Every structure is written in C-alpha cells, then in structure tokens.
Amino acid sequence: MSIAVALDGPAGAGKSTIARRAAKALSYIYVDTGALYRTVGLAATEAGVSPVDSPELDDLLQTIKVELTFTEQGEQAVLLNGTDVSDRIRTPEASMTASKISAIPKVRAFLLDLQRDMAKTNDIIMDGRDIGTVVLPDAQVKIFLTASPEARAGRRFKELAEKGMDVKYEDILSDVKERDYNDTHRATAPLKAAADSVTVDTTELDFEQSVEAVLAVIKEKI
Q: Structure pTM?
C-alpha cells in the first residue's frame, strides 16, 4: 500500500521546499498542490476572469487542462494546457489570486480527483492548506507546518530579492497576513490543523533543521 504524507500550513511556511527535500530523502514523490491553484489563477488572470464564483469561471474550467509532471530527477513541473508555467506562477500577485480562487468550491472540486489519484499509486508528500483535513483525510502521516508571519515574510522577501525582484518587506508581510486571514476564514476547506496532525513550528529553525524535524515526524509515524 502506498504511503501518503499530508503537509499543511499557512503561506510562506516553507512547505514546498521542505516537502521537496523530505520527499527526495525518502524517495517519495512531492506534490505541490498550491501550484495547481496558482495555475488556475494564472489561467483566470490571462483570460480576464475575476477570481470569484461566476459563469465566466465555469466556462474557463471547461476549457483548461492542469497537469503535474515529473522529470527523471523527480522535479515537479506544472502545465497549463500543455505549457510549463512553473516560473510564471511564483509571483506575489499569483499568490494572492491563488488564495482567492482556492476558496471557490468548484475550483477545489476541479482539482480534487487529480490530487487524490496521485496518492493512490505513489508514495507521496503532498502539501497544501487542507490536505490532511479534506484531500487525504486517511493519510498515514499529517503534519501542520507553521512559523510566525514575520519569519515567513522575511524568508519570502529574501527569496524574491535574490531573484532580482523589486519588493518591500512591509508589503510582503501585509500580503502574508491577508492571505492567512483569507485562508483561515474561507467557507470552503479553511486552513486548520487536522485533529491528528503533528505541529512543526519552524520560526526558530533554519532550513536543514526544518527538514530534519519533518523527517523525524514521518519516520516516527511509519
């Protein structure tokens, strides 16, 4: 039987980078569900469709195809209608659009089967907002990864600045707090720790320590 690790937590907690490294260490497949919502958000933005429940969004979902593919090295790429958009979905604007569009039930339903199918036949680490509570409620391991808003904003600022983007820490902190509020207060699948999850707080941990903390929980559970 395949093993599923559900890794949930707020935006900027380092879920994707930590999950990717942990998956590599365990020879599991890493599934970045946030990339899926970012991709739908990108499609909406490019089509001029607002990230709200509307007939226009219904029509859009009927015309797009979102896929996750993996290289021979296990690296993930996300495709929109066959085109790799992995880099284009990593802007602050894409993050905010993803937060809004992920609150729409029909969008979550659109992506749910894709996520669950991947867990049926692969050992995976899947990260997101509601993996342990909604997408994979029977996952053998559930982790809630978190850090203070200030720590998460600082890491995001450093990441974007190193890419040469003109960003301000105060703006990123504001975005982080806004997204936290949106994610925890939405009506559909709000961000929360599963009752049987283990919380890992990385505020005072560096990247390597965070990875080790997550691996320790996984190894203990399986």
A: 0.81
Per-residue pLDDT at 74: 63
User: Contact, 16 vs 32, CB < 8 A?
Assistant: yes
The rounded distance, in Å, linking the Cα atoms of 120 and 178 is 34
Distance between CA 93 and CA 72 in Å, rounded? 31
The CATH H-level (homologous superfamily) assignment of domain 4-221 is P-loop containing nucleotide triphosphate hydrolases (3.40.50.300)
Report whether pLDDT(215) > 90: yes
Q: How far apart are CA 129 and CA 184, in angstroms?
A: 9
The two tokens of residue 215 are 């691996």
Output 72-77 pairs: Cβ under 8 A, ≥24 positions apart: 74/23, 74/24, 74/29, 74/30, 76/20, 76/30, 76/31, 76/32, 76/35
**Percent of the chain residues topping a pLDDT of 90:** 70
* Residue 1: predicted pLDDT: 79
Q: Residue 138 in 3-state DSSP?
A: coil
Cα 1 to chain centroid distance, Å, stands at 25
